[in-house]
């Protein structure tokens, strides 16, 4: 039989042993303690890929852990989104979502994921405007004169897009809705041929991304009339917003955010959000993103979720009202 004194000593020793193990166990379980997959839903080499690489480079430094970028293109981002949605909700698989994956695609096609229920927002990276551009031969220098020009030529003015269901298409339809205009939509297979036909005068208008439009604007081959964000772009400080032109609330930006799978623990989301916001305040990142015409946002997970949900509502209404189907 073990004496009372002996039993107390054993219990004390066991308690001390457990206490000494607790910090080690906590250290092992601290997030992050292994490589994080950062999935970019487009092919390598484009603007979105650059955003991901710049963000991950800094995140790795502040987290003290490596991040590996995986470019998973296809299906307008659907394959990448499905991969993240089905991943273990432990914070080690992140998605760089954008306007197609959680905006235009959910509005125009049936997807193998639920854009809201299957994801948890970590935070916004930033937004960038599209630009209402016209051929230099169009006799309009602002939105008002362009509207008058279109109305004076019913059925004769066309705008191009990167394809049916693309952001460049849906922005054009939103603009038509809010201004009461009728313009013929000409879909192309990508924005490059749409640029060519606008510059040559085959079409009269286009709503390209700021980054894609800037070289043509600076060369004088396109004339910018307005941007689609709620505030002016530093790259085009003299070009007003569409909202400034008498259409308050007009907001149709390109955007990028970081998401994780649903049911990811709140403490992990909070940690990653804090680190993401630190990264976005870094001058090096700001310079790289500014080169792409991106206005850094940051903010809380709740703000990111609210922004994305609002964008989804806008595009769902545009698609429904115009019976739009994606290519």
Describe the structure in your own words.
The protein has 2 domains: 33-128 and 254-322, Bordetella uptake gene, domain 1 (D-Maltodextrin-Binding Protein, domain 2, 3-Layer(aba) Sandwich), CATH 3.40.190.150; 131-245, D-Maltodextrin-Binding Protein, domain 2 (3-Layer(aba) Sandwich). The model is unreliable at 4-28 (pLDDT under 50). It is globular, with a radius of gyration of 25 Å. The longest helix is centred in the N-terminal third of the chain and has 26 residues, at 4-29. The chain has 11 helices and 11 strands. Helix 2 crosses helix 9 (266-280), helix 4 (100-108) packs parallel to helix 11 and helix 6 (167-179) packs across helix 11 (301-322). The strands form 2 sheets. Strands 2-1-3-10-4-11 form a 6-stranded mixed sheet, with helices on both faces. It has helices at 4-29, 47-63, 78-85, 100-108, 143-151, 167-179, 191-200, 210-218, 266-280, 283-290, 301-322; strands spanning 36-40, 67-71, 93-98, 119-128, 131-134, 158-161, 184-187, 205-206, 223-227, 254-261, 295-296.
